[in-house]
Amino acid sequence: MIKISLTSWQAERAVTILDDVLTQGATLDRAYAREFANFKMGPGEQARIATLVGDLLRRLSLYCHLADVPLAEAATAGWGLICVWHQFHDLPLPSHPTADRFNLKAFETRRAQAKGDPVLWDGCPEWLEALGQAQLGKQWPAERHALTLAPKRYLRVNRLKCEPQQLMDKLAREHIQTRLLAGQPDTLEVLSDGALFRTECFKQGWFEQQDAGSQQIAPFLGVEPGMRVIDACAGAGGKTLHLAALMAGKGRLLAMDVEEWKLENLRQRARRACAHNVEARLISSSKTIKRLKESADRLLLDVPCSGLGVLKRNPDAKWRDTAERLPILMDLQADILSRYSRMVKPGGELVYATCSLLPCENQEQVARFLAADSGFSLLAEQTVSPAASGFDGFYMARLRRAG
Ligand SMILES: C[S@@+](CC[C@H](N)C(=O)[O-])C[C@H]1O[C@@H](n2cnc3c(N)ncnc32)[C@H](O)[C@@H]1O
Fold first, then answer.
1. Domain extent at residue 119
2. Of the listed 83, 162, 201, 355, which one is catalytic?
3. Is 233 an annotated catalytic residue?
4. In a domain, 144, yes or no
5. Each residue of 209-267: pLDDT tens digit?
6. pTM of the model
7. Based on the number of CB atoms within 10 Å of its own CB, is 247 exposed (0-12), middle (13-18) or buried (19 or more)?
8. 299 with 329, same domain?
């Protein structure tokens, strides 16, 4: 994480983004998009603002403690939070009346207090600490801490368009340095700060930005060129495009979702990536699924989940009603697994995946499904731990339907 003092003007942008997330309920991505569209800024300036806002939201309760502000009032304390963030990272404070009033002695006392409290130090809300302890036990503190770290940037090389070395060379000519990730032949780690979406390589569909952990899911499904494959919770198509590349563009890949706007986004991305075997289809009723009964060699169920494995990237979820939504999400996951699995041919396979670390959304869902005489058996399961890998957190289980 590159940490540099913000100018007052940049800090004002950060205050607006924080308010958009904490008061207006915008997702962090949407809040960035709005603010960055309203003002002309270079990619470096945007990255600096995002570094500060992302880190503030990852450990909001810590920074509130340091600023002596109740968590519930964080949204109105933007400048106070910005000042403590700068002080915490040993950076000069931006010029503002709040900075002139900054009480360094009180700050140091509060920092010393927080250091003795690992839950506060990791900026973890109470509900998440209770859930993490109950679900993950001894493993939780390491995961909790890993989820406070800034996410790295990774690319997935689009093999429909280029080879990794070609992409690395071309990006280097556009002043973006990358390196291949050991053990993942299609994954590049981005080492420089440039705006990836402005590069010619991106416009020509040579890569997608995708976390390294997320890139483990499509290969787990074991697709081959010529198969009939369904990605039933495709969203905007991050994993669909990966599946298309693994299928070398051959066979049929049906991408489905309940949100048409996401599928529209997916269609555009598929065109850019030259993923010509992708068909996007809206799930408008249960009939859409029933009509596809026993039609798929492979099925990906990348189900809606709490997103607690990707808190590094989406830290705003820490400060939302995620705990209240969890039981609703778990019902939806069980329903999707039970109904959508009927689309798999006898002898075919499915992968159930989430971006959660919680067994109640992962292993326990799969165990209940298998116990309910589903006709499936478990072939393999895998967890991507942020603490062990440094990537975002994921779970995947591969199941085979009896022949
Ligand atoms: C984890 S996201 C998928 C992310 C996507 N696979 C990717 O790689 O970018 C889950 C998706 O499930 C969709 N969804 C929610 N309810 C659904 C349902 N009943 N059937 C199918 N998809 C659903 C959501 O709209 C969301 O796009």
1. 8-123
2. 355
3. no
4. no
5. 999 999 999 999 999 999 999 999 999 999 999 999 999 999 999 999 999 999 999 99
6. 0.95
7. buried
8. yes
